């Protein structure tokens, strides 16, 4: 369902350096503390579940990701968390989780209606009655893709201290039919040539997003425009949604 950029072991090892803990992680961690059992769809290196377990969460924590290289990082750090390779289609889900999360804008990697419906059906199936689903998408009104330009280079050091540069470049004219095609380029002495990965993200407005959730039997209970729980406005950078299983 999702073609993960970080399927490469060398890139997976960089993920946490490129995506350090931030306000969004604090938001989700607060929800995890209130939940006895949690499923993290698109968990990546499992940074969120690892932190929850490290601070004493005693319940069931399950991380799901389609990239084996990412789960290598997760298992090395916390073998006491259940790590599952694949997407939501790998299991017939039962109502056994209090909370399901999709962080890091993973929901936007679902680019077709069918992918969205399949994911939301699995989410509802995995939630107990009254269970919650929390996720975020970038607000299309904020036009974040206009800042994805090659001149904005992010640099980190790999495990050996060598510099790695990362930049993005939007393909075409930007938003087309709700989708943005772009490249993500990695360059540094670890590779003989830059690695270029092609990706697509879908940007959903609140009405379309709400329609998908309603069709799946999920009711929006909270919605914010940023991680400080500020109200959602046309200029908000995020659409942060918490929905309940009906």
Quickly describe the structure.
This protein is an alpha/beta fold and 246 residues long.
- In the sheet with the most strands, the strands line up as 3-2-1-4-5-11-10
The gross shape turns out to be globular
Number of helices: 7
The CATH superfamily of the largest domain appears as: Vaccinia Virus protein VP39
Work out the count of structural domains.
2
User: Separation of termini?
Assistant: 26 Å
CATH class of the largest domain: Alpha Beta
CATH architecture of the largest domain: 3-Layer(aba) Sandwich
Q: Give average pLDDT, whole number.
A: 95
CATH topology of the largest domain: Rossmann fold
Gyration radius (Cα, Å) is 18 Å
Query: Tally of extended strands?
Result: 11
Structural class: alpha/beta
For the largest beta-sheet, the strand count, sense and barrel status come to:
7 strands, mixed
Poorly predicted runs of 5 or more residues: none
Strand content: 25-35%
Binned, the helix content reads: 10-25%
Give helix and strand order, one letter per element, not per position.
HHHEHEHEEHEEEEEHEE
